[in-house]
Write a structure and sequence with these properties.
By secondary structure, the chain is of the alpha/beta class. The protein folds into 2 domains: 166 residues, Rossmann fold (3-Layer(aba) Sandwich), CATH 3.40.50.300; 97 residues, Orthogonal Bundle (Helicase, Ruva Protein, domain 3), CATH 1.10.8.80. A 5-stranded parallel sheet has the order 2-5-8-1-9. A hairpin with a 4-residue loop joins strand 3 and strand 4. Helix 8 crosses helix 9 and helix 9 packs across helix 10. The longest helix has 17 residues. The radius of gyration is 21 Å and the shape is globular.
Length: 290
Amino acid sequence: MAILADGHILLEDLPGVGKTTLVKTLSIALGCSFRRVQFVPDLMPSDISGMRIYNQKSGDFQLVQGPVMTNLLLADEINRAIPRTQSALLEAMEERQVTIDGESFPLPRPFLVMATQNPVESESTFRLPAAQMDRFLIRLSLGYPSAGEELRMLGLLGDAIPFDTVSPVTDAGQIACLQREAASVHVTEAVGRYIVDLTAATRTHPLLQMGASPRASRALYRASKVWAAMSGRNFVTPDDVQQLVRPVLEHRLMLSGEARFSGRTAAEALDGVLASIEPPPGREELFGGR
């Protein structure tokens, strides 16, 4: 859904559950270019965006492109880099371009950042700023596999991960075409108002110090259109919106000090928001399921 909605993904989970394997496999299946950056405290912004290096033979400065010049960028352990380096991705994620020495360079399309972080460890890590979190369309967690799934994994992947057996099923051009198709899904004024009401309610919720921004409204709007298209419909229903409220909005919210102290969560706040706002009638209700 995030790929077709042209959005970025934050994978937040414990080490060893397959975050990096998922992204690498996905890049092969998509038929897109892929780069991985291991975020560490001494990583500099130019290590991501690129730089100009003086060539002694030619006597001029030559552009060396950074790993951001790709379709799918894996920002591994993104919270281990200093905030200045984390912020180097802001322009790329929002504007799909990078600026090097005052000159802007467009990024390949599609462009998707999949960042990973460990939510447990705090040593030698830096919390992602709110502006950075707001650029991620969704936050996901893989979780541990079931006993049966883990046993099957051992049988299939116990010795090595066979990346060479993965074949592309699409390419960058087809993905761009699918993104345009998903963007044409219809959203009624009532459903649009429902999205706005939900995000606006987070801004005045007593548990929250900071609610969802207008960028979050746009993210929920785009994601709902893709969700509807993936369900075989050319129109968005309130159910589509409700399915995506937590993965799209939860990571953008900031709890108040009192809420954090009392052990409350942003998910609780969103559950309250969903319960307090009456959804509009869906198209099925209006037209008797036709």
